[in-house]
Each structure stands twice: as structure tokens, then as C-alpha cells.
Amino acid sequence: MLIVNDVSKIYRTKQRLGWFKSEWQENIAVNNLSFKVEPGQIVGLLGINGAGKTTTIKMCSTLLEPSSGTIFVDGMDIVKNDKKVKSIVNMIAGGERMLYWKLTAKENLRYFGSLYGLKEAELDHRITSLLREVGLDIKSNIPVEQFSKGMKQRLQIARGLINNPKYLFLDEPTLGLDASIAKHLRNYVKELAKEKGKAIILTSHYMKEVEELCDEVLIIDKGSLVMQDKPERLTNLFFKENTLKITVSEIPDSLHTKLNNEISQNKGTWQIQSTDDDEYDLIIKSEKDMTNSIVSLLAYHNLRILNIVSEKPSLEDVILLMSERTSA
């Protein structure tokens, strides 16, 4: 289990006030943060830019030392037992960092694997298996500098799994990947957690990805935990209404009463907006999904339906709302 207990990270910088005077200023990146992650669990760490997500992940993966508080991995303090902890954790970051561009894909993995003391036979097997898993087996002897952005990110994923970590920290892992590769990675992450029992912490700007993968979500703002729950419960907690927008060629006045009766019965509200194309948007807000009943009503009166959009609140809406509340 990963246990983060009252952890803070403070950066101190020297600010010059004049020719002969200066003072130290503190920037609190993470502030008394506490949470737990069980084996087999995927936890999303969310917040707007500057919330402290990446700093938290770097501390959990031993890349940064906390200013205060404790982090335990399998009962080991990450500061006092950093070498042992390093052998069972790893981090995958989005972008093109943490790779040696002059080396080939295979040479990169061999180098990083050697840092964990893997025996040659085991390392060879893991390199072959991981390169195949990320679709780079036929590119294994090509220098990384010749790779596309997506290929570099796939190699990042292989690098992060080279030591077969029990705890995996994913910082924007699908950044730069095309849709098919990103989907494959998401399925692989699910497998790592649910079938192999790995504990995973994920940060991502793709809220659909978080909603698909995460068992639980932590929302942090200015380094502090402001909300923790399952993704669907978070959205239901703050947003009760769904929005349905149906574009039609016309809505006769004679239909208004029937629309009002149908929508009011479901405790919804509605309005009609004209568009620049001489069309009309019927916008309905209600807790219940009214798509079928409203479409049936419009079709019964022979109205031509041009478009239907059903919008449900997302985690992104929750994060923006929480940020607005903490800033107020």
C-alpha cells in the first residue's frame, strides 16, 4: 500500500529587495496532503495547472524529497529506504524527457534496466516483451532521435515498466499518442492494475481517460486536497442536471404546451434559441435523460430533427467549479 501522510513540499527562493538586502520567499507546492492507494487500485490525481499534481507524483516516486510529512510504500519510508523503494516504483511522464536520443530504443531500455540491477537474461526478456507490447519491436535498433513524438512516448511507457514496478505513477501518459495507441495503453493500464495488482496513480488532462480508468479521484488545488471520491459520485454530487440540445427546422407555437407538459412532468426546464441558419435549438435541462420522449414527441408532429446533442457533466466541470470556490 502507498500511504501519503501530511506531506508538504516547499520551495524557497531568494528575492533581492535592494543592493544589500534580500529575503527568502516560500512557494508551497504541496500542502499537508494525505491519501492512500491500495494494490490493484487506479487513483486519479486532478487539478488545474499548478495544483501540485506533478510535484506529488515526483515525491511518491522518490524523485523529490518531501519538506515535511511521510510517504510509505509497502511499509517503507521512502526517504529512509529510498534504494529499496526505487526498485518497486517507477514513473512514466508525458513528453520526450527521460530518454537518451542518441541511443536506440533497445539501448535505452538496457541502460535503464541495468540501473535496477536486472540480470542479463531477465533484462533481455523484458526488453523484448515491452518493445512488442508498445509496438516498437521492429524499431528497436533505430536511434530515438529518429522517432516521432508518439513513438518516443511509447518508449517512455516501456522504460517505466522495465523494472516491473508494483507502484506506477503516470503523469500525462497518453500525451502525443494517436487515438488507437492511447486506447491500447488504457487497456494495458487496466490490465496492470486489475490482473497484476499494481497500484497506479494517474494525472491526465483527458477527463474521459480518468473517468474510464480511475476507481477513485483526488482533486487538489494549490497543493491541498479539496475532494476525494469515485468519479461518477463527484459529478453527481455537484451537478444534478443533464443538458439535451435538439436542433430542428421549426417549432410551431402549437407544440409549446405539449413540450412544457412533458418537460415539467420530469422537473426539467427548457428554452428555444434561434440559430444563424434559420434553425432552432430546443435546450432542455433535467435530471432524467429525456432524449427518447422528446424525440418521439417531435417526430409524432412531423418535425425535421437536424441534430441531437446530449451533454452530461464531466470531471472537468467539477474541477473548474472547485477551483472557483477555493479562489473565491
UniProtKB/TrEMBL annotation:
Keywords associated with the record: ATP-binding, Nucleotide-binding, Transport
Listed SUPFAM superfamilies: P-loop containing nucleoside triphosphate hydrolases (SSF52540)
Coiled-coil residue windows: none
MF terms (GO), sorted A to Z: ATP binding; ATP hydrolysis activity
ABC transporter domain span: 2-247
PANTHER family in the cross-refs: ABC TRANSPORTER ATP-BINDING PROTEIN, ABC TRANSPORTER ATP-BINDING PROTEIN NATA
Record-stated family: Belongs to the ABC transporter superfamily.
Name the record gives this protein: ABC transporter
Organism the protein comes from: Brevibacillus panacihumi W25
